[in-house]
Specification:
three-stranded antiparallel sheet; two-stranded antiparallel sheet; about 110 residues; 2 helices; alpha+beta; elongated
Length: about 110
């Protein structure tokens, strides 16, 4: 015997609804550099992975096709363009060390 479908038995999955209702906000923008890959370096977890980039083509009202690329944002990661993972890690560590040195100079009152 077949079960009868009742609309009151249908309950939405909370995680699915939250994913659908998620609002996307602009966190920043970067220009794509030819020949380089966007990496997300997470210093606290000590990981370096390729950033997931979603590409799409949009046709404007005037008929011009525009390409849009969006990267998924991780608030704990530092994003950088590099040839490979080793160079990405090197760039992030270099910038962090430079930042720490500048902060120490400011504490000493030299800058």
């Amino acid at each position: 015997m077949e079960q009868q479908f009742k609309p009151d038995q249908l309950r939405p999955d909370k995680e699915l609804v939250a994913e659908i209702n998620k609002e996307y906000t602009l966190k920043g923008s970067m220009r794509k550099k030819p020949g380089l890959i966007l990496f997300a370096v997470n210093v606290s977890k000590e990981t370096c992975v390729r950033a997931h980039i979603k590409s799409e083509a949009v046709i404007g009202l005037n008929g011009v096709v525009k390409k849009q690329h969006k990267a998924f944002f991780d608030p704990e990661a530092i994003y950088t363009w590099a040839i490979n993972e080793d160079r990405a890690i090197y760039k992030v560590l270099r910038d962090l060390n430079q930042f720490i040195a500048n902060q120490e100079e400011k504490k000493r009152g030299r800058v």
